[in-house]
Structure to design on (585 residues):
């Protein structure tokens, strides 16, 4: 299935014109109308982001004048201020550690388990796979209260460890599903050849299968990184000290403590936090779209 | 190929361990917690009392009603937008990939980032949408009005979710071979007839999957409500998931919060079973 590519199969519009019930003029105009509607839709979708971006590029308190753009051009002071605020940088650093750590855990564990489910026959395979995939459908939300209690009893609340473990676990079912699908596309001859050459199963996996599966591994890694980076509720519940909070939790605190007319600074922070996810998505659009569909519907 | 008997289990062990520790065990633990109440930091077994209190609590039913209203409007509107878009994209058009990337951007934003943007647009006095829409609804401050606040959360969550729902539906539509609709049109079917007789029966299972997916999302949308309205004004937007969060994390009523979590969990589990069933019933024409 090739949903993500630009070349979605063309249904030529000339067949549309020939269809009964469509007069000729409508058939010719239709593609243009569709494009106009889609462009309007895209503008509407982008509007909140652009409006926030413009507000972040003007001096503090300027909002009261109700003008969108200052006459003096763009003002980068809020960004300079944020990027020199230790607390903000610390939040970003924490987000990076937790998201990367979680994505590494997910990817390595899913790479191993996905291989077992794709290639090996063993007792309980079906039951275990159903159990793991069933876990994917249960949202983390209802688990957060017991997790909070457990982590606090174990004394690992408010640490990188708990965040990396939780993020790592959340991504596993999805990761296994994607990797299993990926491994199944690799011809079995690769492994047979390695076995003939005397490689142990583990050597085969590490030196033959993993290198070919790099695209799959990279897309599991990226999707999980972005999800972890954007996570807000899990981090809000499991982290409490200022020095451990992630960027999203810091942004939430900032929004709640906002006094006076500091909206421009808040908006600048939101824009900065949004950037990594957007960049990774735009670079790896195809991997994202295909990965998400497979994770959700290819039962 | 040679393989040891324990080799497969070694490969899946880390996955099972971590999922058990982070997902399964806490779920079972929340059942235990729900049968207790916390007093001065100690747990005290109270049986089903938490559930009794919950079902007799007007706060619970108020949150329940809000969740239902929100869920129905959210799922309904997202489905309409997503279906129309999926139909447009499935016929293939120039710049389709570009449009899709743009429509997907909101899904790639954190809930709190979306919240900052929507609160900013609806900020009293200043926000551009407050200034445009406030007068339309009789000069009210939308964020401070019960229906207005719900409407803002709805617009933000719909804005985020349409693209993903569209992608699921599109995957379903693309399983329909072009020849099928072509054959229908040769047989003299109008486009409308072709849609209802050919397209609709095939995409129905995907539609069910998408609806269940969105319903799960709607029930668990604490993050968006927390960050945009924090349940306010008053308790006007305190949906079930937010109610649960508040009781457990803010008021430290672990037992009561866990009982709410168990109720939410059961609802989710039923939906998950429905989801798997609709996946199984998906027709494959390829």
């Amino acid at each position: 299935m090739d949903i993500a590519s630009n070349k979605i199969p063309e249904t030529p519009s000339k067949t549309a014109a020939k269809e009964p019930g469509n007069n000729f003029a409508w058939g010719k105009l239709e593609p243009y109308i569709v494009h106009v509607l889609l462009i309007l839709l895209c503008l509407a979708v982008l509007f909140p982001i652009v409006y926030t971006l413009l507000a972040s590029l003007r001096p503090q308190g300027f909002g009261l004048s109700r003008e969108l753009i200052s006459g003096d051009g763009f003002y980068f002071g809020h960004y300079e201020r944020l990027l020199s605020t230790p607390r903000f940088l610390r939040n970003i650093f924490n987000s990076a550690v937790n998201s990367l750590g979680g994505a590494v855990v997910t990817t390595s564990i899913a790479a191993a388990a996905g291989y077992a489910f794709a290639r090996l026959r063993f007792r309980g395979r079906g039951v275990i796979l159903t159990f793991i995939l069933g876990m994917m459908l249960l949202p983390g939300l209802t688990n957060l209260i017991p997790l909070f209690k457990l982590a606090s009893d174990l004394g690992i609340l408010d640490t990188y460890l708990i965040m990396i473990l939780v993020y790592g676990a959340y991504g596993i079912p999805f990761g296994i599903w994607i990797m299993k699908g990926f491994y199944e596309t690799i011809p079995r001859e690769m492994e047979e050849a390695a076995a003939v050459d005397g490689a142990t199963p583990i050597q085969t996996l590490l030196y033959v299968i993993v290198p070919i599966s790099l695209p799959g591994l990279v897309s599991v890694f990226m999707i999980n990184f972005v999800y972890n980076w954007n996570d807000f509720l899990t981090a809000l519940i499991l982290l409490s000290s200022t020095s451990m909070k992630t960027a999203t939790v810091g942004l939430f605190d900032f929004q709640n403590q906002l006094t006076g007319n500091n909206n421009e600074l808040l908006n600048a922070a939101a824009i900065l936090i949004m950037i990594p996810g957007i960049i990774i998505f735009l670079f790896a659009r195809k991997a994202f779209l295909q990965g998400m569909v497979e994770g959700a519907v290819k039962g | 190929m040679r393989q040891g008997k324990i080799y497969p289990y070694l490969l899946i062990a880390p996955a099972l361990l971590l999922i058990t520790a982070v997902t399964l065990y806490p779920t079972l633990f929340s059942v235990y917690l729900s049968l207790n109440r916390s007093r001065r930091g100690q747990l005290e077994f109270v049986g089903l009392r938490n559930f009794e209190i919950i079902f007799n609590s007007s706060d619970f039913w108020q949150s329940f009603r809000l969740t239902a209203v929100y869920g129905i409007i959210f799922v309904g509107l997202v489905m309409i937008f997503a279906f129309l878009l999926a139909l447009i994209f499935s016929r293939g058009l120039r710049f389709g990939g570009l449009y899709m990337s743009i429509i997907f951007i909101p899904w790639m934003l954190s809930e709190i980032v979306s919240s900052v943007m929507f609160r900013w647009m609806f900020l009293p006095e200043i926000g551009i949408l407050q200034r445009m829409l406030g007068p339309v609804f009789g000069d009210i401050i939308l964020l401070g009005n019960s229906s207005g606040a719900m409407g803002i959360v709805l617009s933000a969550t719909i804005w985020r979710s349409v693209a993903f729902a569209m992608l699921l539906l599109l995957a379903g539509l693309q399983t329909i071979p072009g020849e099928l609709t072509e054959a229908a049109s040769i047989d003299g079917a109008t486009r409308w007839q072709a849609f209802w007789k050919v397209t609709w029966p095939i995409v129905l299972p995907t539609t069910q999957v998408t609806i269940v997916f969105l319903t799960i999302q709607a029930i668990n949308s604490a993050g968006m409500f927390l960050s945009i309205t924090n349940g306010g004004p008053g308790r006007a937007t305190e949906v079930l998931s937010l109610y649960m969060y508040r009781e457990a994390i803010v008021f430290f009523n672990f037992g009561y919060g866990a009982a709410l979590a168990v109720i939410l969990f059961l609802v989710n589990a039923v939906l998950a079973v429905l989801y798997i069933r609709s996946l199984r019933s998906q027709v494959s024409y390829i």
